[in-house]
Amino acid sequence: MCRSDVRQAVLAKNDDLAATLRGDLARRGVALVNLLSSPGSGKTELLGRVLARAVERGVPVAALTADLATENDAVRLARSGAPVQQLLTDGLCHLEARQVGTRLDGWLPPDTAVLFVENVGNLVCPAAYDLGETLRIVLMAVTEGEDKPLKYPTAFGSAHLVVLTKTDLAGPAGFDEAAFRANVERVNPGVEIVRSCARTGAGVGILLDHALAARDTAPPHRPPLAPHPHGHHHPASAPVA
């Protein structure tokens, strides 16, 4: 069996586990939100704000955060008052459905409406793995450059929602938002882009509303590289016009 065949077999097995997990969570009334970004995008701080807003509103949410090492992010997120678990991958550059399902077994509070999964900081490997999510969100900071969607088309092309973070730094960073939006449109036509800033709280309520809506209805946007419901599409990259 060649290397590509092995990879496809691994991904196919993951897809089956993800589909089972998605069905189990749906029967429990839980929406899983998979958060993907590069390291340093600010997703942990933004997620902490979203969790705190949910707690303030009395919305039962929980979070699973993944890292290669340390429990630093779990400690930070737990300050929100929401239930949080750390998942250490021991060097693995991505999460898989098996890991998520195992960690949730016996832990996830029964009244949970939304489970946020903060994936490992990486826009390559995590993009190929369906975690049983209802909603996939890809985040990018303004400091990362307008061409990031073109460099990582699989990640951006599989997103139901794209979040632009650290927008308060757009001016100092010389960020060209129009070019960024055009690049996102090239790899994922029609996807919504939410502007956010953890420092000011901008976009926090919008993200929580999107997560809650995913619990009741399918995401309104169908990305070209959608990870479900009929198994994951595993191309080398998204089409770029």
UniProtKB/TrEMBL annotation:
Quick one: where's region Disordered? 217-241
Q: Which residues form the CobW/HypB/UreG nucleotide-binding domain?
A: 34-194
Q: Which InterPro entries match?
A: CobW/HypB/UreG_nucleotide-bd, Hyd_mat_HypB, P-loop_NTPase
Is RNA-binding tagged as a keyword?
no
The source's superkingdom equals: Bacteria
User: Which UniProt key words apply to this protein?
Assistant: GTP-binding, Hydrolase, Metal-binding, Nickel, Nucleotide-binding, Zinc
User: What GO MF annotations does this protein's record show?
Assistant: GTP binding; GTPase activity; nickel cation binding; zinc ion binding
* Chain ranges passing through the membrane: none
Q: Which GO terms describe its biological process?
A: protein maturation
Task: Give the UniProt family note.
Answer: Belongs to the SIMIBI class G3E GTPase family. HypB/HupM subfamily.
What protein name is recorded for this chain?
A: Hydrogenase nickel incorporation protein HypB
Organism this protein belongs to: Streptomyces lucensis JCM 4490
